[in-house]
Design goal:
It is a single chain. The chain has a six-stranded mixed beta sheet with strand order 7-4-6-5-9-8, with no helix packed on it. Strands 16-13-17-21-20-18 form a six-stranded mixed beta sheet, with helices on both faces. The chain folds into four domains: 160 residues, Molybdenum Cofactor Biosythetic Enzyme, Chain A (3-Layer(aba) Sandwich), CATH 3.40.980; 55 residues, Molybdopterin biosynthesis moea protein, domain 2 (Alpha-Beta Complex), CATH 3.90.105.10; 88 residues, Beta Complex (Molybdopterin biosynthesis moeA protein, domain 3); 76 residues, MoeA, C-terminal, domain IV (Beta-clip, Beta Barrel), CATH 2.40.340.10. The chain is elongated. The longest helix has 19 residues. The chain is built from eight helices and 28 strands. Helices cover 19% and strands 30% of the residues. The protein has 417 residues and is of the alpha/beta class. Strand 8 and strand 9 form a beta hairpin.
Length: 417
């Protein structure tokens, strides 16, 4: 019965849950073409290779005079080489004049060398004498030159498929003359919150309703994961109304995130709604603590993630289920972290419950010395909003582990920001 109390009979390992989710979207990862200026933060779907050498020609590494080194072989303090100034070339010059023997040309940094030149002498090393320069030492071939292809060689693979584009990459793409790139589609995510007690109105919260804080965490986390997010509002604990909202959302979005309404009680409106709309697969119960009552469903080939209502469970299930899925849909590895670093545990961590689960312990980082980190566990009930606020990341304690001692080296996982 819809109103009957129930229990979760089994708990699935989080790695298996992610595998099921990834399998559900393997055939729907889409690629689109965007202009380079709109590509920041997007993930490349194809490798970028250089179509030509950069620079295209030998260029001057400094302001000075381009010459052929052979004209300076006999130069000395007593008998300087005397070269005629045959003109000048600036950076960006479209024409490369030919340098005749016994001549030099004024060049600025980044300017292409004239044909026949193979070296540049710095302007402070020459003495000007009317239309001539005097050089008091032999100049080496290749001196003060950036050879053609010194920066980028034709055919060189520069940015691989699966690379998230950064500001410097945008500049490089322009440098290569590339104006359009193929990137993975940015997932469209719907966020639906369920609960009679919740409100987005401060005045209603002041009168006793519960302010919808969890949305304020999950919405920006989803954007930080590279997705477009649409907030669909708060639904009451009514399975029929939630069913209707989910059916509507399935027509427009790639992934749906729900917060609340999925507890193991008579008011688990989201879980009941998923059964009503014919979930092809539904899992509730994760071997993850906090987060064990989280889960997911696949409906019409689209994933719906059930985020529990207690804040630490909400965040953990997002990071361990939704985040890997959203990364995979954009061509990235389905991991629950944005970055990682190693640190020393500053305090003992003891596990008394759910020993057979994967345990998530949020930690505060402190840097000591040069690139040496210590982490302090932020412990408490999974309903405490202050825990993620005091934390920089989290460590994972494996199944069957009851204690991790102070001083142990651990890996701190950093969420997207």
């Amino acid at each position: 019965m819809d109103g009957a109390l129930r229990r979760i009979g089994s708990f699935i390992r989080i790695e298996e849950a992610v595998s099921i989710l990834v399998d559900s979207v393997k055939d729907v990862r889409r690629v689109e073409r965007v202009d380079v200026d709109s590509s920041l933060g997007r993930v490349l779907a194809a490798t970028i290779t250089a179509g030509r050498n950069y620079p295209m020609y030998d260029t001057s590494h400094m302001d000075g005079f381009a010459l052929n080194h052979r004209d300076t072989l006999s130069a000395s303090e007593e008998r300087p080489a005397r070269l005629r100034i045959a003109g000048s070339i600036e950076a960006g010059a479209q024409h490369r004049p030919e340098l005749t023997p016994g001549a030099a040309m004024r060049v600025l940094t980044g300017a292409p060398l004239p044909l026949g030149a193979d070296a540049v002498v710095a302007q402070e090393e020459v003495k000007l004498a009317g239309e001539y320069i005097h050089i008091k030492r032999p100049v080496r071939a290749g001196e003060n030159i950036d050879p053609a292809g010194a920066d980028v060689r034709e055919g060189e693979a520069l940015l691989g498929a699966g690379h998230r584009i950064r500001p410097q990459d945008v500049a490089l793409l322009h440098y290569l003359g590339i104006r359009w790139v193929e990137v993975f589609h940015r997932p469209r995510v719907a966020l639906l919150v369920v609960g009679d007690e919740l409100t987005d109105d401060f005045e209603e919260a002041a009168r006793g309703k519960v302010f919808n804080t969890h949305r304020r965490v999950i919405e920006p986390l989803t954007r930080a994961a590279g997705c477009e997010v649409s907030y669909l509002g708060i639904m009451p604990d009514d399975a029929e109304l939630v069913s209707q909202k989910l059916r509507e959302a399935l027509t427009s979005y790639d992934v749906i995130l729900t917060i609340g309404g999925s507890s193991v009680s008579e008011k688990d409106a989201t879980s009941l709604a998923l059964r009503r709309i014919g979930a092809e697969k539904m899992v509730q119960g994760l071997a993850l603590q906090p987060g064990r009552v989280g889960g997911f469903a696949i409906v019409n080939g689209k994933p719906i993630i059930l985020l529990p209502g207690l804040i630490m469970s909400t965040i953990n299930v997002f990071l361990f289920l939704a985040y890997p899925l959203l990364k995979y849909m954009q061509g990235l590895e389905p991991t629950p972290y944005h970055a990682r670093l190693r640190a020393r545990l500053a305090e003992d961590v003891r596990i008394s419950r759910y020993v057979d689960f994967k345990k998530v312990v949020w930690v505060r980082l402190e840097e000591r010395g040069e690139a040496e980190y210590f982490c302090y566990p932020q412990l408490g009930e999974s309903s405490r909003m202050s825990i993620p606020v005091r934390s920089h990341g989290f460590i994972v304690i494996g199944e069957g582990v009851e204690q991790v001692e102070r001083g142990a080296e651990v890996v701190v996982n950093l969420p997207p920001t």
